[in-house]
Each structure stands twice: as C-alpha cells, then as structure tokens.
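SEQUENCE-TO-STRUCTURE ENTRY
===========================

Subject: a protein chain together with a token-level encoding of how that chain folds.

Sequence line: the amino acid chain in single-letter code, read from start to end.

Question of interest: how does this chain fold, as expressed in backbone structure tokens?
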Amino acid sequence: MQDFLNTELWSGTTVGSLLTLEFLTAILGGALSALFVLTTGFVIAGWLSRRIKGLASRHSKLDQTLFDFLSNIVWYAVVGFSALIVLNTLGVRTTSVVAVIGAAGLAVGLALQGTLSNVAAGVMIVLFRPFKLGDFVVINGQMGTVKSISLNYIELADLQNLQIIVPNSQVWGNTIVSYSANPTRRVQWVFGVSYGSNLAQAEKVIMDTIMADPRAMKDPEPFIQVSNLGDFSVDFTVRVWCANSDAWGFQTDCTRRVKEALDEAGIEIPFPTRTLYANKLADEDGDEARHAAE
C-alpha cells in the first residue's frame, strides 16, 4: 500500500500527495465554483433573453422576429462566456480551447457552405427587415403570405394555403415584391368599348361607377384616358388609389360593376370576331375542274 502511495505520477507528484485533504478540498472547491459560475451563466442568459423578447411584445411597432434573433445571440454569448470561465477555473488554458474551436469552426464552415450561406442571408433579412410576418410578398417567383422567418428559410402560405419553403440564400439574392409595404395602393383597370361608342359617355360611366365605391380615394386624383386603339376596341386605362387592404376586393368588385353599368348605358363592350368571305369565282372553277376529271 505504501509503495502504491509513493508511486510518482509526474514531476515529483505522487499518488499520496493527490489524496491529501488540501488537494481534495481544492478539487471540490474548483468543482463547486465551476458549477456556480455555469448555473449563474444560464440564469443570466435566460433572464436577458426573456427581457429582450419582452421589448417587442410591449411595443407593437417593433419586429418580434428581430428581437427573437437578438435574444438567441445574447443567450449563446452569455453561456459561451460562462463556459470559458468554468474552463479557466478548472485550470484549462482557454487560449488553446479557443484555437481548437476556431479550427473546428473553419472545417465545419467549409463542409456546410450552403447552409452557412442561408444563415448569413437570414441574418441580413432579420437585420434589414425587407418584409415582416403577415406581409403578402413575391419572393423568387413564389407568391404568398409570410408565416415564418428563420435563419435558414422563409415559410410562405400561397393563395391556396399551401406551404412554400424558400431558402434564405434565394431570398436575399433575388428581387422581393411586397404588396403590404405601403399603406395605399393604386388599382388599375383596362376597359374596352366599341369604335362606334360615345367616348365621353363611356368615360363618364366608367369613372362615376368606380368613384361611387366608398373605397375609392379622391386624393390623389384618379386617372382615366384612352390608352390604346386596338383591333376590336378603344381601350380606357383607369387608375384609382385605395387603402392597401381594400385593393383586391375593390378591383374585382368594380370590374363587375363597370361591365353592368356599360351594359345598362347601351355601350357595347366588343369581343374578337372573324368575318369569312367566300370566293364565288374560285368555287365555280373548282366545280368545273371536278366535272372535267369525271
């Protein structure tokens, strides 16, 4: 037993010296200190994360997604800092640990370039906020309502309520069209009337019908002009402003009302027609040729 206790481990340190009361006390004290620091770190990280998320819930103008992202960053930063303190308390050289983590991060980054590009694009989307939850947008040719914004992808619900997942790298690098960004919209129609119609009367019927709708705005001033002399019709282009939320219903309702108003006023709405002229002389020649062949 004595020989075992006198066994040298390193640099004059023996097994017996490790089993002394002072050494055990130091180990226990270090473990308790590390546990206290780590627990305190988790408590502080959770408290700060909840506080940051609470800022968005108390102010309706603040974007919840942005504060969720910031709260996650703060949580990981506090926990990571606490872990470094724990390692330092246990006698581990943190500079070496940081170097190893950096090398491992580089290797992982090279292996996950596509995923990290989505994360980088997600950070830009969260910080610059080209759209927010609930906006109706067109992203990379996909149209829908924004349901979720994460660091990897954007979730949309299209007009049929189908789920569409768009990777963030395809969002940030492409054109984004937002139908919800501005409080007002200018709705446009094109109505065609026949060439024999009274244009002044047609213009008045169209404009009076649209402006009678309470959703139509008189300021900015509405627009109506003859925009095209087509093959079958004289075309009026009409543009009227309305609230953003009313745009779709306003456009479809007025399209039907204008058609009914033009019919009531006796103004013809033409449609493509084709007139065929029979060549009588060619028919007679063809009959003679058939008789001669017989």
User: Anything to note?
Assistant: The first helix runs from residue 2 to 5. The mean pLDDT is 79. Strands lie at 8-10, 13-14, 136-139, 142-149, 153-157, 163-167, 176-178, 184-193, 223-229, 234-243.
